[in-house]
Each structure stands twice: as C-alpha cells, then as structure tokens.
Amino acid sequence: MRVWLLVYLRGYGMANLDHSIPLNGKSVFYIASTSKQFTALSIAWLAARGRLSLTDDIRRYIPELPADWAGVVTVGHLVHHTSGIPDFFTRMPHAGRRLEDTTSDEEILALLARQTQLNFQPGDQFQYSNSGYFLLGLIVSRVSGRTLREFAEETLFTPLGMADTRFHDDRTAVVPRRATGYVPRAGGFGVFATLFDRVGDGGLLTTIEDLVKWDRNFYDGVVGGEAMTSLAVTPGRLNDGTRLDYAFGLFVREHRGLRTVSHGGIYNGFRAELLRFPTRKLSV
C-alpha cells in the first residue's frame, strides 16, 4: 500500500491585515491560472464518457462565435492554447472595460464573438490564451447542464474530499478562512480590489491540504482512472507535428534532468504554483 506524507506545511505572513489573521495550512487561496488544470480535467472527464470529443468544433457548443473565422477551432485547440482566439484580458481595455469591473459570462462571450479574425490558423502556433479556458468552462456548463463550479464539485472535488475547493463564480459568496489579496503601496499594502469573478481560465479557491489530495489523485487515479490522468500529461501537437510542452492545463518540462508537471498563476494579489516531480513522487 502506498503511503503519502505531507512533509512540510507552514504559513508565513498574514491572511488578513484588517483582522490580523495569520496564514496557516487551512487558509483558502485564490490560485489564478493554476486553476486551468481543473477545467481541463473536467473536459477530459466528459470526453472519456463520450459527452464530447476533443476534435469537436467549438461552435457545436458555442454557436454565438463567428462562423467565418478562418479554420475550425476544436475543443483540443482550446485545451492546448493553439486556437488563435485572442485573449479577452488584452481585449477588454479596447472595449472600454477594466479587469477589475463586474463582468458577466455573456459580456466576455460577446466580446470574443466580435473578434473578426483569429491571431493565426488554428493549430499552427501555441499562444497562451485565457479565452480558451474561459470557453472550455462554458462548454463544460453547456454539455453537463451545470455550472463549472457545480460540475467540478460533484465530479472532482467531493469524491476526493476537497471540501475547501471551489470555482469562485459568485463574488458575494462567503468563503470561510479565505486569504485576502494585497498589493504593495507606499507605507505598506492595499487590498487588491476587484469585482472580477469569471472562472475556467482561473477563479479556483483552494487550500494546501486540498491540493495534497488533488496531487495524490495524479498517482492513484481515484477520479478518472489511469487513462484520464495519463491524458492530463500528454502534450499537444501543432499542425506540423511539433510537440508542445503544454498538456491539459499543465506544462510538462524538465528541471535538472527531472521531468516536471506544473502550472503557475498570478492575479488578484496572489501568486500560485503547483510543481510536481513525478519520478520522485514529490510535489511543491
């Protein structure tokens, strides 16, 4: 029987400066783009059960997108950042919107639908795009009939006992033990004030202890089984056959001769990273 050990867990600094609450192992963090692997595994879960295919045209699920884009954008293109769809974060300022503003799924979808062309032919290049993962979250919702938050909670988090993990799609929701994001300013720190609560490309709240449970599933396959966890670390390829270092919301690379599986995230006053060394069964 495999025995898992949590070798080191420690909080440094403060979770909330208003109330002088220190960080600890149960503090709930916003992990920004590190969330992408959870969206990707939701897609993989649906694909493994025949609910969708990675080769499906995304307009099958999101008909609001332009039919005259050059080339077919597939679900797989979104997963591997090879769709050519512009990143909505870079387009919002051009539409007179701030990232800190309240923004609905419908508004972001309408923004993407107004893009008259792709950045490149789908599959020709790798270009990291939050739009792709926002759209993947929308596809999960439309295929399953549930929000991404509800779907991930039922299929991923609850079976693994990740009680403190959720896609935070409601900025008014109360979240016990949630850490506050801060930004440096003269004389100290200020609260990172944002009303943005879209999910898919980011938006996950979780704890170190819950991420340990998620990490164990990478080896045990309690959720999804070996086939799904294997798919999760299978890098995509470009049209010319070039192998990418990006799999399902995860970068697959090397560090000092050791294979690594990782993803980081920066937003909302937070920096997050989940780094795995599979051959050493070590994660940070």
List the helices and strands and how they pair.
Layout: E1 14-16, E2 21-22, E3 29-30, H1 36-48, H2 75-79, H3 88-91, H4 105-113, H5 130-144, H6 148-160, E4 166-167, E5 182-185, E6 188-191, E7 204-206, H7 208-220, H8 225-232, E8 251-255, E9 258-267, E10 270-277, E11 282-283
Antiparallel strand pairs: 1-2, 3-7, 4-7, 5-6, 8-9, 9-10, 10-11
Protein architecture, described:
The structure is a single chain. With 284 residues, the chain is α+β, with helices and mostly antiparallel strands. 28% of the residues lie in helices and 16% in strands. It is built from eight helices and eleven strands. It has helices spanning 36-48, 75-79, 88-91, 105-113, 130-144, 148-160, 208-220, 225-232; strands at 14-16, 21-22, 29-30, 166-167, 182-185, 188-191, 204-206, 251-255, 258-267, 270-277, 282-283. The strands form four sheets. It has a four-stranded antiparallel β-sheet with strand order 8-9-10-11, with no helix packed on it. Helix 1 packs across helix 5 and helix 1 crosses helix 6. The longest helix has 15 residues, at 130-144. The chain is globular, with a radius of gyration of 19 Å. The relative contact order is 0.20.
Structure characteristics:
284 residues; three-stranded antiparallel β-sheet; four-stranded antiparallel β-sheet
Strand order of the largest sheet: 8-9-10-11
Number of helices: 8
Q: What share of residues are in beta strands?
A: 15-25%
The radius of gyration computed from the alpha-carbon positions, rounded to a whole number of angstroms, is 19 Å
Low-confidence stretches: none
Helix content: 25-40%
Main beta sheet strand tally, sense and closure: 4 strands, antiparallel
Mean pLDDT: 93
H/E order of the elements? Answer: EEEHHHHHHEEEEHHEEEE
How many E-type strands?
A: 11
